[in-house]
Amino acid sequence: MTSMPTDASSTSGAGNSPTSYGELRAELATLTTEAFRPELAEIDRRSTEDIARVMNGEDQTVPAAVAAHLPRIAAAIDATAERMARGGRLIYSGAGTAGRLGILDASECPPTFNTDPSEVVGLIAGGPGAMIKSVEGAEDSKELAATDLDGLKVGPNDTVVGISASGRTPYAVGAVEHARALGALTVGLSCNADSPLAAAAEHGLEIVVGPELLTGSTRLKAGTAQKLVLNMISTITMIRLGKTYGNLMVDVRASNEKLRARSRRIVALATGAADEEIEAALTATDGEVKNAILTILGAVDGPTAAGLLADSHGHLRVALQASRDAGPTA
Question: Does the active-site annotation cover 257?
Fold first, then answer.
């Protein structure tokens, strides 16, 4: 098994001393995510099925921990969507597992919601290479986080989400502090109470899931909690931006055979039209699912559908109402 440090662990560097390591050890000992569980001290002697049952039981506690913070999460999402509607970006910033989760969530947005890759961005301490191999000292640098954000020219319409299970990782804290100084909206997502990350952010989200099965292995429950919250942030923001019609992904990018088949199914579910009408609508709109739905339900031609959607900033329901108010053109 490949060993990678979690975002709560220290990466050695030239400036570290036995004294600083002692201070860091003392700090880590105060964190819920780093707590040792004596009752699991001999878990390696249990059967595989028993360990699996324990892990499964641990995982079941995560959604409840997230649910306790839904009002705060919703407020952060509404603020994010407001800025993205003005042309801003959603930027995730983290180290180790947290950084990888941010990049994973960002990378799913273009195929799912047809966003440009520059609209939802994931930054990881140490750069893209840190996705598969830890980078010495990268997570310990607030300055590196500021440099990475400056490379994106972060501004007031952007949202920066710092992600850190411990809530103390300098890269994530530095990203939030620098982004806030630049006027950006900031969100701090951690899994410990009273964290520096949450304190630095305008919206602090502290999803406390308790000690891990393996002491300090925050890729487990903490990672699951972070993944759930990031799913909410990106998905609900895209819903608010009009990237869906009901629960249909009408902005899906049909870049392979599966997605082309899904596109046709989405048009069918939205309209109830026959296959021939669906094919004609997709042909008339260059394969754009949202436009095709509008041509069918709004009885308009392809160019008119494109214009109505542009006027409604991509919100299909608004464009559909406008088409009905204007009357049929097709």
Answer: no
